[in-house]
């Protein structure tokens, strides 16, 4: 999910009861109480139109800055290795890569100077590329989430905590992509050797091999996390067009390789149908084409909330909590993912586009009336929330988008913490009031009025008082990593978007 990904509920013409409010302890405060309830509380909001008659009091989280966080559960080196250096994404990458390299070394050692047969090496290389492609297919991703999140809450927490990391399956994609490229290097070397000895391999097979290898190396270079972050548009273009070109050439390579090894008395058609790489490439190609078969231009109703964000309303499909969709004005150039918000009983969904770059700024200045949509709604990290009995959900800014539909669904007891500048002015009364109506104890913290809170301490206070099993956070990369590490290192399962893949 990109940093600008967000969504918001459609503005329904329902009068929500005004919520109660508390000021945060970092400034002088007033405790706002509803005449109907004195037990529910939400944070202070700068918009005075929503205030009720106030009376002095102390918010339940008063003095959270003075709280002493519990000691971290493991030694410094162990927890840094476990939660930062060797994240589950990197562990999955490592398992795939090390397994491949073990087979790679065994293949080289077993066959000695003669080398393994190029046909065998080619099968392994294509199998890795096949898995790498499928791990980025919408239906495959949704299947992983559906299976993982089907676990009942009665299961032990340590099992549900592992299943909750299902969104790190990108490590399998990366591991297979890198491994497949290394196998292709070995294939190129062995194919060259066999060509020189005039054993099976022909010139077209060699030519396609080296071109594909160059394309895959280029894709890996541009996909390196730092390069991808600094030059995201370049990464997206190279990954798409170089990837498509590589797949087309893999078809050529497979057909020529089958022809090179065609047995006497066997037709080319028979050889193709009996070749596993042919079927792998066929399935891989269909998985790439499928989302583009669902490419369509849909009408959108835009509602500018402020100079910071615009809300886009769609009715072409219904979505579920945890979904995101991909949008574009130029389908071949760039795509942007945004979380969807659906309201139970309401058709369609809405999404909030917040200012985070040139594309989002242009959508706010000139809201679209139509927009391209590709594929099906796909699940993201917030989908794991129902795995846990009680959850603290943390959002900063437009990160409320992915979290809001879970709040509205009310399938899991939730304590919401949302920090943002000028909340009502930026996101509108309808969204704020609907969240408070759905989760009366929600904490909505105006950072422009109160300054930035200590998110680790505040989150931990809420986990302790709400007796939560887990934390889900949607924020920018530094804060997400900080809060997730702050919770995990103290034994509290925490989940947030990753930027490794």
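^ Assign residues to that structure.
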């Amino acid at each position: 999910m990109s940093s600008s990904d967000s969504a918001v509920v459609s503005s329904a013409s329902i009068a929500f009861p005004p919520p109660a409010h508390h000021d945060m302890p970092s400034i002088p405060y007033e405790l706002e109480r509803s005449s109907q309830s004195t037990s529910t509380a939400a944070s202070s909001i700068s918009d005075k139109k929503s205030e009720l008659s106030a009376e002095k009091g102390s918010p339940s989280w008063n003095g959270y800055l003075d709280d002493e966080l519990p000691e971290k559960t493991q030694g410094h080196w162990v927890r840094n290795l476990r939660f930062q250096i060797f994240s589950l994404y990197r562990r999955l990458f490592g398992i795939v890569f090390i397994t491949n390299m073990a087979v790679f070394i065994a293949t080289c050692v077993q066959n000695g100077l003669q080398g393994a047969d190029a046909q065998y090496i080619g099968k392994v290389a294509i199998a890795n590329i096949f898995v790498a492609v499928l791990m980025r297919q919408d239906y495959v991703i949704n299947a992983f989430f559906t299976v993982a999140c089907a676990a009942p809450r009665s299961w032990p927490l340590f099992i549900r905590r592992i299943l909750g990391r299902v969104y790190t399956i990108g490590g399998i994609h990366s591991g297979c992509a890198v491994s497949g490229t290394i196998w292709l290097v070995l294939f190129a070397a062995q194919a060259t050797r066999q060509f020189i000895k005039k054993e099976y391999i022909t010139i077209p097979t060699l030519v396609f091999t080296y071109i594909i290898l160059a394309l895959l190396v280029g894709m890996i270079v541009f996909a390196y996390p730092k390069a991808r972050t600094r030059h995201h548009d370049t990464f997206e273009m190279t990954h798409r067009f170089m990837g498509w070109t590589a797949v087309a050439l893999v078809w050529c390579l497979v057909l020529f390789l089958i022809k090179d090894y065609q047995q006497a008395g066997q037709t080319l058609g028979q050889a193709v149908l009996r070749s596993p790489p042919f079927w792998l490439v066929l399935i891989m190609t269909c998985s790439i084409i499928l989302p583009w078969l669902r490419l369509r231009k849909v009408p959108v109703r835009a509602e500018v909330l402020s100079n910071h964000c615009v809300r886009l309303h769609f009715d072409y499909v219904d979505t579920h909590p945890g979904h995101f969709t991909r949008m574009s004005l130029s389908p071949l150039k760039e795509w942007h993912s945004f979380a969807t918000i659906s309201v139970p009983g309401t058709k369609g969904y809405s999404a909030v586009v917040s200012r985070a770059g040139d594309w989002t700024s242009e959508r706010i200045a000139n809201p679209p009336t139509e927009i391209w949509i590709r594929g099906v709604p796909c699940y993201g990290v917030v989908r794991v929330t129902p795995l846990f009995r009680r959850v603290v959900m943390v959002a900063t800014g437009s990160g409320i988008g992915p979290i809001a539909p879970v709040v509205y669904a009310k399938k899991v007891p939730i304590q919401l913490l949302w920090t943002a500048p000028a909340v009502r002015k930026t996101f509108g009364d309808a969204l704020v009031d609907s969240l408070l109506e759905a989760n009366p104890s929600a904490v909505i913290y105006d950072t422009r009025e109160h300054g930035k809170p200590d998110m680790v301490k505040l989150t931990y206070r809420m986990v302790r008082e709400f007796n939560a099993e887990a934390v889900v956070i949607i924020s920018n990369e530094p804060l997400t990593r900080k809060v997730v590490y702050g919770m995990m290192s103290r034994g509290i399962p925490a989940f947030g978007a990753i930027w490794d893949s």
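The mean pLDDT is 85.
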